[in-house]
């Protein structure tokens, strides 16, 4: 990659200021495109179980808190020119960073699989319309979904073959079509039912979701992007492009697409007289609303816009774990792995069940990991990492044989706290566990680091 400096045995990639060519529009388009996709639509449909008003409050509150963290990580990338999983070495240690890098790798492969499966569902609907094959969910429907997975995976391999520049190209073209599509979808939904009807609709008791559960569900979705923040902001030369644009783009994308998924799912529940969260995927909704082949093709496109970001983040994580693997081969590897993971819902027999397990996993591991990283950079190191020492086995980030045991212990404690406080009534019903857990772990980490690794007085 042009403008990248290589560093020692534990090399990291640092993008020089003169090689940062992503504009504010590129950054906005990248992050709105990251959320203007099938997964966001599907999450909005899942949140329908909260009811319209509660779901909207959850979307605003959880997204605001999550994307403030995204802006903070974005600034770190702008300040240093390094990717997120390189910067996390400052908190976890150079070797210790392999653990969060592995988590990052698994979650971005997982998100790629989520978007790919939803897009493959659209392909199965297209094959149904064109050649009469059964759609997924009906007898014989697995054939169409498998063809869809293969098609999407080939498209992903082609897009990642040109690396970061492909992200810019896909986002610039895709964002225009995505915006036009969601406007069309919005008009169709509100021709079907009114806001008044939606406000008065409530999910059946057995499907009802509390505000706290909604906060955690959306936090798991939103925080996934935080750990990719610096991977993209290191390519912009403007501070506003690294802080304001990621926040505005990601928030706009998640609010708009989650809202349309939410509204569309409720509208179908009202008109059909029944609610089934398994039918929240965009292809089923588009088909029931009669949007036709063009809508299904745009759903496929939105998968590519989101997965361009997912795959680049997964490739960066793999490169941090195995520094000898260059970015492009890493991108090919994670694309192939994601293709295999996409088959898991077919084995489990339910996409919703697989998706719920995935959200539970990333929800409990990402919050404390991000908290430790942000507290270390902003509070402990006062917004300054020595980039050269992030690649040195003799520097301040080596800690104990390359591991900061305090950070790893706090992270494990954070996972345990998350599981424990989820069962407190107020947390479960109102606030959710994610952000409370992040605050507590941040305070614990800072206190322990002051005891075991006090910084020299200036």
Write a structural description.
The structure is a single chain. This protein is mainly alpha-helical. The protein has a single domain (22-350), classed as Hydantoin permease, CATH 1.10.4160. The protein contains 20 helices and 2 strands. The chain has helices at residues 24-35, 38-47, 52-80, 84-87, 89-92, 98-131, 142-160, 164-192, 195-199, 211-226, 229-233, 239-272, 282-288, 292-321, 327-341, 344-348, 351-380, 405-421, 425-431, 434-452; strands spanning 4-5, 14-15. It has a two-stranded antiparallel sheet with strand order 1-2. Strand 1 (4-5) and strand 2 form a beta hairpin. It is globular and about 65 Å long. It starts with a strand and ends in a 6-residue tail after the last helix. InterPro entries: CodB, Pur-cyt_permease, Pur-cyt_permease_Fcy2/21/22. It is a multi-pass membrane protein. GO terms for molecular function: cytosine transmembrane transporter activity.
Write the layout of secondary structure elements.
Blueprint: E1 4-5, E2 14-15, H1 24-35, H2 38-47, H3 52-80, H4 84-87, H5 89-92, H6 98-131, H7 142-160, H8 164-192, H9 195-199, H10 211-226, H11 229-233, H12 239-272, H13 282-288, H14 292-321, H15 327-341, H16 344-348, H17 351-380, H18 405-421, H19 425-431, H20 434-452
Antiparallel strand pairs: 1-2
């Amino acid at each position: 990659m042009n403008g990248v400096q290589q560093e020692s045995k534990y090399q990291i990639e640092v993008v020089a200021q003169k090689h940062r060519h992503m504009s504010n529009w590129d950054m906005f388009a990248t992050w709105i495109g990251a959320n203007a996709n099938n997964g966001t639509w599907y999450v909005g449909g899942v949140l329908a179980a909260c009811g319209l008003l509660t779901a909207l409050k959850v979307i605003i509150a959880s997204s605001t808190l999550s994307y403030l963290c995204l802006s903070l990580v974005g600034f770190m990338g702008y300040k240093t020119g390094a990717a997120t999983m390189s910067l996390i070495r400052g908190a976890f240690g150079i070797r210790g960073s392999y653990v969060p890098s592995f988590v990052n790798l698994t979650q971005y492969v997982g998100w790629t699989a989520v978007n790919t499966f939803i897009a493959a569902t659209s392909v199965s609907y297209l094959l149904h319309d064109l050649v009469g094959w059964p759609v997924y969910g009906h007898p014989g429907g697995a054939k169409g979904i498998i063809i869809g997975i293969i098609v999407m995976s080939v498209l992903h391999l082609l897009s990642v073959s040109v690396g970061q520049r492909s992200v810019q190209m896909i986002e610039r073209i895709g964002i225009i079509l995505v915006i036009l599509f969601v406007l069309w979808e919005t008009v169709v939904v509100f021709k079907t039912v009114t806001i008044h009807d939606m406000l008065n609709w409530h999910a059946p008791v057995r499907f009802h979701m509390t505000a706290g559960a909604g906060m955690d569900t959306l936090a798991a979705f939103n925080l996934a992007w935080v750990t990719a923040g610096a991977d993209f902001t290191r390519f912009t030369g403007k501070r506003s492009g690294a802080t304001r644009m990621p926040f505005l783009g990601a928030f706009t994308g998640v609010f708009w697409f989650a809202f349309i998924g939410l509204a569309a799912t409720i509208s179908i529940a009202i008109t059909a007289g029944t609610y089934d969260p398994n039918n929240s995927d965009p292809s089923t909704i588009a088909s029931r609303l009669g949007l036709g082949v063009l809508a299904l093709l745009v759903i496929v496109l939105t998968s590519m816009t989101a997965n361009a970001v997912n795959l680049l983040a997964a490739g960066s994580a793999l490169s941090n774990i195995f520094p000898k693997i260059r970015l492009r081969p890493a991108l090919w590897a994670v694309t192939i792995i994601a293709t295999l993971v996409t088959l898991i819902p077919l084995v489990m027999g339910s996409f919703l069940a697989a998706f719920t397990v995935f959200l539970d996993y990333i929800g409990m591991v990402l919050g404390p990991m991000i908290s430790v990283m942000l507290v270390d950079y902003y509070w402990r190191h006062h917004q300054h990492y020595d980039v050269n020492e992030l690649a040195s086995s003799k520097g301040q980030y080596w800690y104990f044989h390359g591991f900061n045991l305090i950070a790893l212990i706090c992270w494990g404690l954070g996972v345990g706290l998350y599981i424990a406080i989820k069962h407190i009534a107020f947390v479960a019903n109102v606030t959710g566990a994610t952000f409370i857990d992040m605050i507590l772990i941040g305070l614990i980490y800072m206190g322990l680091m002051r005891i075991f690794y006090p910084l020299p007085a200036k």
